[in-house]
UniProtKB/TrEMBL annotation:
<keyword id="KW-0472">Membrane</keyword>
<feature type="transmembrane region" description="Helical">
    <location>
        <begin position="63"/>
        <end position="89"/>
    </location>
</feature>
<feature type="transmembrane region" description="Helical">
    <location>
        <begin position="35"/>
        <end position="57"/>
    </location>
</feature>
<feature type="transmembrane region" description="Helical">
    <location>
        <begin position="6"/>
        <end position="23"/>
    </location>
</feature>
<protein>
    <submittedName>
        <fullName>Uncharacterized protein</fullName>
    </submittedName>
</protein>
<keyword id="KW-0812">Transmembrane</keyword>
<keyword id="KW-1133">Transmembrane helix</keyword>
Length: 96
């Protein structure tokens, strides 16, 4: 049985996309446009992590390469999300 933990890249990307939808309906979307591109790019890298792990699923000889690539994609995604969060925070501070 496959266990999906809460920090799995697909869950994290789903939560980020739900946050973007909530921003849209709260009316803040126009004020924070600059940082949202970084958040969406982070989601793409989390999807890339999931696709890499699924693509190497049946190849035990490539398991180390798959996990190394997964770590690299996740580090890039978290950096992009942090940059986006800082840009959104600075945009919201200017909006007041």
């Amino acid at each position: 049985m496959v266990e999906i933990e809460l920090a799995h890249p697909l869950w994290v990307s789903t939560f980020v996309l739900v946050g973007l939808v909530l921003l849209k309906y709260s009316g803040f979307m126009d004020k924070v446009r600059r940082g949202l591109g970084f958040a969406v790019a982070a989601v793409v890298f989390w999807w890339l992590t999931a696709a890499t792990s699924i693509g190497f699923w049946g190849r035990p000889e490539l398991l180390q390469a798959a996990s190394a690539l997964g770590v690299i994609w996740q580090v890039i995604a978290w950096i992009l999300l942090l940059v986006g969060a800082f840009l959104v925070a600075s945009d919201l501070a200017k909006a007041r």
